[in-house]
Design brief:
This protein has 185 residues and is an alpha+beta fold. The protein is built from two helices and nine strands, in the order αβββββαββββ. The protein is elongated.
């Protein structure tokens, strides 16, 4: 009986080891914001009223600059791609990271700097990206973590580019960096 028990235990342990070896982490998924193709109405786009916003909290994953051109006009447009890995805020930390990276596309310069609430928004996003990635390193063992908030005004204007697709005007986005100060639940 004792031998049968040991044999069953070895068999179950072997099954567990094989299943652990074959297990794979879920692949990281990417989602694009704004959608690649957007319906840009003809004429001058209406400026948002900046009352309502979409806020994305997460860990920045770098920032890249693309040189592109506007559809139909050929005007040069510099585009930032700002990937942010989604994070659940004020969680117990066990849900970090989510495994979903949101790729945010926006112009590197304000399209209408004289009318923009802050014509330096694109530069501010670059600054917060650098601070979070270099000066406030991510440590998964800590109970708090650093993150960036990427804020988009409801009704944010887009420009359609030839290579990157639709990109937000940087006039209508903002970035903030922070460190979660709340104790885990």
């Amino acid at each position: 009986m004792n031998r049968l028990f040991r044999l069953a235990l070895v068999f179950l342990s072997g099954c567990l080891a094989v299943s652990m070896l074959n297990a794979q982490d879920a692949p990281v998924r990417h989602q694009r914001r704004p959608p690649e193709f957007s319906n840009v109405p003809p004429g001058e786009p209406k400026q948002p009223n900046y009352d309502f916003f979409s806020i994305l909290d997460g860990r920045p994953r770098g920032l890249t600059l693309h040189h592109d051109t506007e559809v139909n006009t050929g005007r040069p447009v510099d585009v930032y791609v700002f990937p942010i890995e989604l994070q659940v805020m004020n969680s117990d930390g066990n849900l970090e990271p989510e495994g979903l990276i949101i790729d945010n596309f926006y112009t590197a310069k304000a399209v209408q700097p004289q009318k923009a609430p802050n014509p330096h928004n694109a530069h501010d996003c670059n600054t917060w990206n650098t601070l979070i990635l270099k000066e406030i390193p991510y440590d998964p063992t800590l109970s708090t973590w650093s993150y960036v908030e990427f804020v988009v005004a409801e009704g944010a204007r887009t420009v359609q580019t030839n290579e990157d697709g639709a990109v937000w005007w940087s006039d209508d986005v903002e970035c903030w960096g922070a460190r979660d100060r709340f104790a885990p639940f």
